[in-house]
Design brief:
Layout: E1 2-17, E2 19-24, E3 34-44, E4 50-53, E5 59-65, E6 69-82, H1 106-110, H2 122-130, H3 140-154, E7 156-157, H4 168-174, E8 176-177, H5 179-192, E9 197-204, E10 220-227, E11 231-236, E12 241-242, E13 247-253, E14 262-267, E15 272-283, H6 309-317
Parallel strand pairs: 7-8
Antiparallel strand pairs: 1-6, 1-15, 2-5, 2-14, 3-6, 4-5, 9-10, 9-13, 10-11, 11-12
Length: 319
């Protein structure tokens, strides 16, 4: 199955700004049942793009716009081939015992630690106790499926209740949130159980309008948990489904802080507006396979501050 993705981000400024520095994580990953067939990014004003692969295997593009501009438009287009993968209904009875140093690497152990947004709290303890989640029941796969369902049943889907930098306690106290919140809650509980878990950003293609709680005109977030005998398995607590062929993976990280689609700053005393458009459609097979990430110049570290929280809120709460 092939999907054509178009993701447009537009920043508008009240007065011309003098420079924009941006970092992008918009290129779908190519691994396992997902293969990237074509990808391109265009910017207006035009800018020279540079690229590298981060420590998590995500493709990162960055650029500077050095002349004055009142609008910055970034358009990413991709064609992705996605196949479905099968898995057993349950894991075997020895799976919990496989979470040991023989089967886990340092990367897995890193994903057992608290991170900026996926961390333990008294509110999470209360939620787990009330829902019978203090300890996992059954094999790891069955326990994670139950957790996926409990989070879906426990929270209403509503944009604007939480912000992009909200701790999980905000969604826990409100009983509402968006996909980012639900993913962080599931990750924190899975790690508490001793299961390595990571945050996935990407897109969800829907067969029909309003098929799922998350819209098909926005980015999406879900969870991958590691089972030693099965590998990384995707769970979508927003929609109470397993991540399957209609889930298109772009980036993975410890939590949202590792994978925002855009991160940047600008020079100038201006008010800003962020608008986003996403479309995911079934497509025909492309005629050729592109190559990606030919690095034209090594990345140089800089201390530029990130775009303000209001930008990030609009970016994530679009869902």
């Amino acid at each position: 199955m092939f999907f054509a993705i178009r993701h447009v981000t537009r920043f508008r400024y009240s007065v011309p700004v003098h420079e924009s520095v941006m970092e992008l994580r918009m290129q779908p990953r190519s691994e396992g049942p997902q293969t990237l067939r074509s990808f391109q990014i265009t910017t207006t004003p035009r800018a020279q793009l540079y690229a590298y692969t981060d420590s998590l295997g995500n493709a990162v593009y960055h650029f500077n716009v050095l002349r004055a501009h009142e609008e910055l438009r970034i358009e990413a287009q991709a064609v992705v081939e996605r196949s479905n993968s099968t898995m057993p209904a349950i894991a075997d009875g020895l799976e919990w015992q496989r979470y040991n140093q023989l089967n886990l690497t340092s990367d897995h152990f890193d994903l057992l630690e608290s991170s900026r947004f996926a961390r333990h709290s008294t509110g999470l303890d209360r939620f787990m106790a009330e829902r019978g989640l203090a300890k996992p029941q059954g094999d790891p796969l069955s326990a994670l499926k139950t957790l996926n369902h409990v989070i879906f049943e426990s929270f209403g889907y509503e944009s604007g209740v939480t912000e992009v930098h909200s701790p999980i306690d905000h969604a826990l106290s409100e009983g509402r949130g968006v996909c980012q919140d639900f993913a962080h809650i599931m990750i924190a509980i899975a790690r508490h159980w001793g299961v390595p878990a990571r945050y996935v950003s990407g897109y969800l293609s829907q067969r029909r309008r309003n098929e799922h709680r998350s819209g098909d005109d926005a980015t999406h977030a879900w969870v991958e948990a590691y089972l030693p005998s099965l590998g990384w398995i995707g769970f979508d607590p927003t929609n109470d489904i397993m991540a399957e062929e209609r889930h298109i993976r772009v980036a993975v990280g410890r939590d949202y802080a590792d994978v925002p689609p855009t991160r940047g700053t600008f020079k100038g005393d201006a008010e800003s507006e962020l608008a986003i458009s996403v479309s995911v459609e079934l497509a025909q097979a492309p005629n050729r396979h592109e190559e990606f990430l030919r690095i034209a110049r090594p990345m140089k570290q800089n201390d530029a501050s990130t775009i303000d929280a209001a930008h990030h809120q609009q970016q994530q709460q679009q869902q």
